[in-house]
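User: Design a sequence. Structure:
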């Protein structure tokens, strides 16, 4: 995505980045376009920026952005702009993981999301799951308490992309033991 932004910026495109301006990946993309990228994190951000229909735009996304939000912003941009190139730069593993989290959440009473508190992809999973059911966000099994599961019969689990398998296995064993 850095190369896409750099190439299109050098060709006179204004760069739009869908993501969090404070995320290192977005900061890096913005660096390739002289820190002039338009950064959109929410649909509300889109309402607060001026876009010129006479300009040409190139859209890229933070690789861990929420897919549903990304699609909503793309739809809004396509309605506002005539000359825009969309580049889906969301990591394919992120897409699959988010879709699976959504499907699991719709079929359980609560979710447990295992991963780093500062991990963007983990926090997106938490947000997705919270749209459906009560959700616990933990880094290790040590943060779990049997009380957390009272009143819930069916528990789902997902994990951030870089969560080690052994941590996930510990959480699964803990939940099964309940």
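Assistant: Done.
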């Amino acid at each position: 995505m850095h190369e896409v932004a750099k190439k299109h910026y050098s060709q006179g495109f204004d760069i739009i980045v869908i993501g969090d301006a404070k995320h290192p990946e977005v900061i890096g993309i913005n660096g390739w376009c002289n820190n002039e990228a338009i950064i959109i994190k929410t649909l509300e951000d889109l309402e607060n920026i001026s876009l010129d229909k006479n300009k040409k735009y190139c859209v890229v996304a933070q690789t861990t952005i929420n897919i549903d939000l990304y699609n909503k912003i793309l739809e809004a941009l396509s309605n506002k702009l005539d000359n825009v190139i969309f580049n889906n730069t969301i990591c394919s593993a992120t897409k699959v993981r988010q879709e699976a989290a959504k499907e699991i959440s719709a079929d359980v009473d609560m979710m447990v999301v295992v991963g780093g508190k500062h991990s963007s992809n983990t926090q997106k999973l938490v947000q997705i799951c919270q749209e459906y059911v009560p959700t616990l966000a933990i880094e290790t099994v040590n943060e779990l308490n049997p009380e957390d599961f009272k009143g819930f019969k069916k528990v789902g689990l997902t994990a951030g992309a870089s969560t080690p398998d052994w941590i996930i296995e510990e959480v699964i064993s803990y939940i099964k033991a309940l």
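The chain is about 40% helix and 15% strand. The CA atoms of residues 52 and 74 lie 16 Å apart.
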